[in-house]
Amino acid sequence: MSGLAIRNVKKSYGAVNIIHGVDVDIADGEFVILVGPSGCGKSTLLRMIAGLEEITGGEISIGGRVVNNLQPKDRDIAMVFQNYALYPQMTVAQNMGFALELAGVKRPEIDRKVAEAAEILGLQPLLGRKPAQLSGGQRQRVAMGRAIVRDPKVFLFDEPLSNLDAKLRVKMRAEIKALHQRLKTTIVYVTHDQIEAMTMADKIVVLQGGKVEQVGTPLELYDRPQNVFVAGFMGSPAMNFLEGKLTGSDQPTVTLASGTSIKLAASAVNSEGRDVIIGIRPEDLSFATEGGVPATVNVVEPTGSETHVALTVEGKEVTWVMRERAELMPGQIVHLSFMSPNVHFFDKASQQRLEV
């Protein structure tokens, strides 16, 4: 078993607390992504799992064994860094086999493992080259190959795609996901890019300020964010937010700041007078057939398959992703409908999700 358990883990530098009691369970063979804005503590948490940072409190176990006091080399993990960390004087084959050589593995076994990893990653033609002769994507595959040959219990990835261009990042995302499906090894992967998280992970851990905001599958986080932070972080373009008040009893409604009132579903829970934040995904907006919320068109951005429209609603900037094509002009007034089953409600004071 190569599961990973993080129990009430804390990290402080003097009086400054960085990680505030994180609890996460990662199953054997699971692909888990730690995601959050810069400075949220995700890379620090990964480095504590690797043993590159000491933990201030709590417990980390790998495969049922507590590793708090073990050196990185004794934790049976392999880490792929953002900057590849390849030896420039060594060939691809030498880079991939160097850790095994240090561990005293015999040369025939090293050659066999390097050949197997090279086949998995399509590196056979490059084994005699040095890093300077490789593209960014090829270097990243070599770094992954160096991890694979060690056959670790857990792979750790620290923002491995951030140095690649947009097209290559898409390709490498698919390669890493295919690699996981083939090896079925536990992976913990850090990124600030929520698109990477949505497309690759079995489970996502959303961090902010050294705390876990929510843990779940990509679609759970997208469809049922537990607070305003997760709702705004997961999804691109980001969720739109408007403020209003829940009123009514027989027919609950939400009244926006401008006074516009919109009826909720009859099954809605009555929260008379509660101040709320309304969350609407850009793809859940549409033209209102009658009434609707007035909006001013600011910018229209055709992308081919869809059109992104920046609007002003209730004095706030709102993004609309249109699947159909429509002739819209800056300054035009349109009326929007957004009361689909996918609209989200959050308590204004606590910013926590409301079931309405």
Structure description:
The protein is α+β, with helices and mostly antiparallel strands and about 350 residues long. The chain has eight helices and 21 strands. The strands form four sheets. It has a six-stranded mixed sheet with strand order 6-7-8-3-9-10, with helices on both faces. The model has no long low-confidence stretch (mean pLDDT about 90).
Helices and strands, with pairings:
Blueprint lengths: L3 E10 L2 E11 L4 E5 L6 H9 L6 E6 L2 E2 L10 E4 L11 H11 L4 H15 L14 H13 L5 E5 L7 H18 L2 E6 L2 H7 L2 E6 L2 E6 L1 H6 L4 H6 L6 E8 L5 E4 L4 E3 L11 E6 L5 E2 L5 E10 L4 E7 L2 E7 L10 E5 L6 E4 L5 E2 L2
Parallel strand pairs: 3-8, 3-9, 6-7, 7-8
Antiparallel strand pairs: 1-2, 1-4, 4-5, 9-10, 11-12, 11-14, 12-13, 14-20, 15-19, 16-17, 16-19, 17-18, 20-21
Helix pairs in contact: 2-3, 2-4, 3-4
